Protein: M28 family peptidase
Amino acid sequence: MKKILLSLTILGTALYSCTPKIGSIINVSEVERIETVLSADDMKGRQLFTPELDKAADFIAAEFQKSGLEFFGGNDSYMQSFDMLQASPSTINGSLDQEALSTSNVTVNSTSESVEVKSLTDYELVKVAKDANFNQLVFPVLRADKNVVVLIDPAHAANFARLGRIAGRAKFPTEYSQVFIMTDNLDPKSLALTAKNTVTKQPLKNVVGVIPGKSRKDEYVVFGGHYDHIGIGRPDAKQDSIYNGANDNAAGTTAVMMLGKYFNELKDNERTLIFVAFTAEESGGFGSTYFSKQLDPDKVVAMFNIEMIGTDSKWGPNSAYITGFEKSSMGEILQKNLVGSKFHFEPDPYPKQNLFYRSDNRTLAELGVPAHTISTSKMEEAPNDEPNYHKASDEIGTLDMDNMTEVIKAIALSSKTIISGKDTPSRVEKLD
Structure:
């Protein structure tokens, strides 16, 4: 019996010694190496539809390959490619009663080459009066899966101009169109309109790597963060015009890459792990929306969305918060797994900002997945907010690399019972 116990002890010690220590993989030098590349000036802010965004995607894919991750689904590379459509109005003709309609008073949100409204009964009708809340009435229509005509009082002219810029962005192909007309005639008797669009394809790509699970291959845990930013803008006082996006969100993307490397070295995941760098978060979350549609949400056990972890949280070092903490048991599981460590997760302290539905976790969360964002970013009103948020000053020199490394380690350690299958977070209530 003593020999058996001694043999088991030696075997256990040998197995433990073969398990890589987290600091040998997730360390400041590696974190800083990746962060430096993604937030460098030659990435020019990683703006949508630029060669620099493609360059960032290639770098992420190369790191996934070095880490030994597999391709996702039936893909033959780490790139998950898809097309957006951008429709630019070439002509708009028609009338609302006796009022002539043109590109000066009409905005069309569509991906079709031609949009025709023959009468007021063709489309659902929405009216935005002078004293109405423009945002509440108009912006949900932009996301509607139906044909809508919106009549907008000229008192909202400034917002109408902004609406035109938003409608002109690339979007997913859809059979539906929304027509916005600025007019003081909110009770018309007739409407006839024809819009011709020039439609162009805009290719985008997420970068996705996988570590297959052992006993629970069909149960997924997702680690994600967006790699795009807002590019080059107006020069600041230092004549810097490159919005490097070091914290937003090269930091979160770095974490995804480091976690992929760590877990593939560990090789102890019973559930399948998916690591994804999302595109187009800054333009409407199109990358995460597309990715989410490639999965059965009932098979996604949890999602860790990592967003802006490069600065200290309001509690100081070795802390971060979890958005939507009360919406599932995932936060409690992560807290439990960190008991005894120097790090702690807290519930989101900024509920008024509605952060739970403002990042790449949103689509999966709406489908019932316990999908939460982990962040350290201060999202209060100035002067206590992030001073470099969406500014040219968001550079690597403003980040706390030591603390950022600890955040990544904490995510790795706190997720251990979820990836092993021991814990399963409760589901988030689905949204209609």
Summary: The radius of gyration is 24 Å.
